[in-house]
Amino acid sequence: MxxxxxxxxxxxxxxxTLHRPERLNAITxxxxxxxxxxxxxxxxxxxxxxxxxTGEGRGFCAGQDLRMVDSGAGEASTIDxxxxxxxxxNPLIEAMTSLEKPVIAMVNGVAAGAGAxxxxxxxxxxxxxxxSFVQAFVHIGLIPDSGATWFLPRLVGLAKAMExxxxxxxxxxxxxxxxxxxxxxxxxxxxxxxVGRLAERLATxxxxxxxxxxxxxxxxxxxxxxxxxxxEAILQQLAGQTEDHxxxxxxxxxxxxxxFRGR
Length: 263
Ligand code: T3D
Hints:
The protein is an alpha/beta fold. 45% of the residues lie in helices and 16% in strands. It folds into 2 domains: 5-203, Alpha-Beta Complex (2-enoyl-CoA Hydratase, Chain A, domain 1), CATH 3.90.226; 207-254, Orthogonal Bundle (Lyase 2-enoyl-coa Hydratase, Chain  A, domain 2). Strands 1-2-3-5-7-10 form a 6-stranded mixed β-sheet, sandwiched between helices. Strands 4-6-8-9 form a 4-stranded mixed β-sheet. Helix 8 (207-220) runs antiparallel to helix 9.
């Protein structure tokens, strides 16, 4: 049983909700472990074809729980940050990005520090018009982690990434959309419905092909054209062997809508 998150499967969609609303869903070691377990469940469960990550209450996630950080009295911190990042955050980010199913961040409110990184590690971001993003790390003398230095420049460009991370200014949902940080912004009261609709739509698509597309896109970010072409050929071979591929071709010939089963 999870205590710091909620995990609900509704049809083909797994809803993962960060659940420490009184702390704007700030991250604890327990929450990281539970998130890793939840994404492992998504990976294992063949019924689940889409995951949605969101936060309870008025925040998406305020990053690392700073009340649990003992930074010492006037001295350098004795916390082993390398260990907490390597053992806590990094495996979660890799579990999300290597998951061959689409993951949507339903950004219901502020996403700060590693909370913003969690949103960045999702494949699509749909933000409430009340959401905001803060690269808060600089305010406490840390560097962006949990993949932020990797995702940000790829999404918004190097100059903007430098500005966001150096200054740590709050970015509104509208601005986030303008600079390419989020895919969509919707009125707050319609957020759940809009994301539900998007998730349902994704869940009716050929899940294996989408998963392989995700793998190809991520791998392509650090590969040569030659290597990407080769990888596409290998992954296409896998996609071409799915029932969904056969169904897509059959449906085209029969002039009907395909029914993809994710197999
Ligand atoms: O340990 C490692 O492995 C290192 C890794 C670090 C990764 C990181 O994430 S570092 C960055 C950590 N996060 C932050 O620095 C953000 C801190 N929070 C804020 O700057 C603001 O709270 C927000 C901009 C997120 C939201 O501001 P606002 O005005 O909407 O809300 P608020 O009043 O500041 O917060 C509401 C409550 O949540 C408040 O509690 P209270 O006073 O009502 O009892 C506040 O203390 C609590 N809260 C907010 N953020 C955190 C938090 N409690 C613990 N940790 C937080 N990060």
